[in-house]
Amino acid sequence: MYPVCLNIAKRLCVVVGGGSVAERKIRGILAASGQVRVVSPALTVGLRDLAEQGRVEWRQKSYSTDDLDGGYVVFAATNSPAAQEAVCRDARAARLLLNVADAPELCDFQTPSVIRRGDLTLSVATNGRSPAVAAMVRRRLERDFGEEYGLLTALVSQLREQILREASSDADKKILFQKILCDDIVDWLRERQWERIQRHLESVLGRPVGHDLESLIKENP
Question: What is the CATH number of domain 12-111?
Answer without folding.
Answer: 3.40.50.720
